[in-house]
Amino acid sequence: MGSGTHDRNAGLAMNVVGGSGGAPVPQEGYVLEARGLTKRYGSLLANKDVQFGVRRGEIVALLGENGAGKTTLMNMLFGMTAPDSGSVLIDGEAIRLQSPRDALALGIGMVHQHFMLVPPFTVAENIALGVEPSRRGMLDLGDLEAQITALGRRFGIDIDPRAFVKDLSVGQQQRVEIIKALYRGARVMILDEPTAVLTPQEADDLFKVLRGLAHEGTGIVFISHKLREVLDLAHRIVVMRRGAVAGEVLPRDASPESLASLMVGRDVLLRVEKAKSVPGKPMIVVRDLVVNDDRRVRAVDGVSLSVRTGEIVGVAGVQGNGQTELVEAITGLRTTQSGSFHLSDRDLTRATVRDRTDAGLAHIPEDRQRHGLVLPFTVEQNMILNRYYRAPFSRWLVMQAKAMRDQARDLVGRFDVRPANPEAPVGSLSGGNKQKVIIARELSRDVRALVAAQPTRGVDVGSIEFIHGALIAARDAGAAVLLVSAELDELLAVSDRIMVMFRGRIVGAVDSATASREDIGLMMAGGVSPEVESVTR
Amino acid sequence: MTRGRFAFIIGCIGLLIGGAEVLRSPDVSASIVAASMLATMLRFATPLTLGALAGLLCERSGVANIAIEGMMLSAAFGAFLGAAATKNLLIGVLAGMAVGVAMATLHAWLSVTLRVDQIVSGTVINIMAAGITGFLSTEVVRRQALVGAGLLPALRIPVLADLPVVGPVFQQQPIAWVALLLVPITHLVIFHTPWGLRLRSVGELPRAAHAAGINVIRTRYTAVMIGGAIAGIGGAYFTLESVPAFEPLMTNGRGFIALAALIFGGWTPAGAWAASLLFGAANALHINAQQFGIPVPAQIVGMFPYLLTIVILAGVIGRVSPPAAVGTPYEAD
């Protein structure tokens, strides 16, 4: 902690912000509290005088967009980052957290967004790390393994302590993180975007576990940007915006709309406005496609689908069920083992990426940092990556700077890229604006088909609105759109039909106007589809 | 390290010794060939084993170490100087270790604290070691006419050392014995102690180690410095066990071969040791080919382990991945 301003005598009266009614949990002091925390990274004020607290047995949701300062706040509460000023209190006493070790010792546990588990280690070894039980200097994990099983039984978490973490599913790894915190005696548990990687069913199971923990007295801080689950789970909701607490509400006084506008600072359209689709002839035609993953294991196992002009087909599924490989095969980033991909009636199964681009296929890649942009290049350079080789950008083997600049000036305005500076390195833009640069490049030409993979992942609410609008505009202009997303809400709002992928196969298809979240969730988890409708076509 | 890989390496060693037996000229007796192959293999494997273990500690903590060569070379010089100045061989070994630790500390400071690219840091150390030891050996050793303090005497295990053929195995010099002992010790420390678990976590996913309350920087320093001490013993081998003198560049690339042995052995002590023995066996065949009357050119035989390394690295008998964080400096934000 940089400064010495952690005075214990600061009045207790200042600890409630936003002033709403009493919480549904016993009113007592905070177990963990942040008082006036401020953190600056260079010119960015990441946290500004933040007041925040959680009581015993209380589930507090910390809601905010990417970059609102949630993670910075949590890192300070967990001792990973030192605040510039302000203090952290446990049971009302100011403490100095110099490392996560201090936080752990004081009963603060954290489940990070990117799990802190060592893949080649076993579950028990991971949980032991830092507090290793030993006998005569040698590791001795026998008792620990028994304790893990016992803790798991108590909270309904089934886990094999001898399993290697690299063999576990994402949902199971998250359970290991929770057990790890419990084993270390966490009285407060902080979870950073825990549902981002889960199926709806897994998320429900997680909520059960969290409610059970709260019931036994653990204080829980739940970070999220998903409005629905926050309203469902939390006892109290704290909303952050631009590094400061924007407000504090109780779920019964809040609606998704009111939370969204509190998050963004203006009214937000949560529902996507779109006309009914008018599908034409099949454009993206995939037949019996088989694709292997990096380990040469079959990831796409005989997928057939067709997307017609003027419609958006969504692909739902838990990460790692072959969606990535499907997209990469269609866009030419990965070799196809067998089967075919046609754009209208042209066979592009073995075509190069440039041939596909020239044939009118656009791609918004899943990993925009790796496949979408050259980060050290400027915005204007990134905007010509799919056309630099032709006029007017290249003449007689010489790049035409003026044409590039003119195009970028136009696109930056039309696609609302901020800052509107064609010469800025694209790596310095926020996630949402990086994505807008990609969309500007991909859609500012004659596009017959668009493949969009996780287009709004890690993007702020304002940009999500814009991106959804762009997808629908592409559809209405007659493009066939294949949208792969892990966000069920997004698929339901944007697509016209939804297909569900499970273990490399399409296990069901539904009309998004009539589909229910539950049915899709069930299919995502491998359950039998209630009705594989005629929409598969 | 899979059992299959270990068996594969041991099989290759058997192949080399068997090959020597098959190809030897009828004038040379089978037992002489076997005994001489074993003795040369063990001798040559000693600095490789120590170098590989040094690299193992370093790389398991997430710090790439191509500086084993430089550490061993400067330690060889330090050991010679220490022994020559005090006429005490043990002090020579300790001096070699101290120099190894000093070079390792420099490597840690550059790559862990200053976060210089670890390959660049290693290269700098190698070049610096060659330059400084070359300079000092002319300036100090020649000018002062320093004479070495002799070689460490072999330690024999009674009875066993008198056995035919395998006798040389039980009659080795102290540093060779230390190398043999360090293999199981390193294995125990790395895989069966709390510190070893921390070390490996720091080399795999330092963020997770940090979040578990482990001091990543300190762990890396400790590992690199212990590695330096082991490389120092390996360096002392050259001037206190092999020849009683220092010559410029006398490690002659053995630090890099140790690194190959480390990779070949899948970053495990047993594997690194077996791979060191294999390189030793190939070298034994290379050196003795003429004496055994083997009709194959020695250079061809000498290529064998390197071809094998390429085959192994290409993933023919299963891939082994290095510690995931090797080469990446850790920066807590």
Would you kindly provide a written description of the structure presented here, covering whatever features stand out?
The complex is a heterodimer of chains A (537) and B (333). By secondary structure, chain A is an alpha/beta fold. Chain A has 3 domains: 27-107 and 192-264, Rossmann fold (3-Layer(aba) Sandwich), CATH 3.40.50; 115-186, no CATH class; 282-536, Rossmann fold, CATH 3.40.50. In chain A, the strands form 6 sheets. In chain A, strands 6-9-10-3-11-12 form a 6-stranded mixed sheet, sandwiched between helices. A 6-stranded mixed sheet of chain A has the order 18-21-22-15-23-24, sandwiched between helices. A 4-stranded antiparallel sheet of chain A has the order 2-1-4-5, covered by helices on one side. In chain A, strand 9, helix 6 and strand 10 form a beta-alpha-beta unit. Chain B is an all-alpha fold and 333 residues long. Chain B has one domain: ABC transporter involved in vitamin B12 uptake, BtuC (Orthogonal Bundle). Chain B has helices spanning 3-23, 30-60, 68-86, 89-113, 118-144, 174-192, 194-204, 206-211, 216-242, 254-264, 269-292, 298-313; strands spanning 155-156, 171-172. In chain B, helix 1 runs parallel beside helix 11 (269-292), helix 4 (89-113) runs antiparallel to helix 9 and helix 6 (174-192) runs antiparallel to helix 9 (216-242). Chain B is globular and about 65 Å long. The mean pLDDT of chain B is 90. The A-B interface holds A 75, 78, 80-81, 99-101, 104-105, 110, 112, 114-121, 125-126, 128-132, 134, 137-139 and B 188, 192-194, 196-198, 200-201, 204-205, 207-215, 324, 332-333.
